[in-house]
Amino acid sequence: MRTRAGLLAAAAALPYLGSSAAALAAGVDNLTGLPLYPDVNSAAMDTVARTDKMGHWCNRFQANTSASLDTVEAWYRKNLFNPSETDLKNDERYRGYENLVGVKLALGIDYVAVFTTGNGVTTIELFKCSPST
Question: Which residues contact 23 (CB under 8 A, 6 or more apart)?
Answer without folding.
Answer: 29, 30, 36, 43, 61
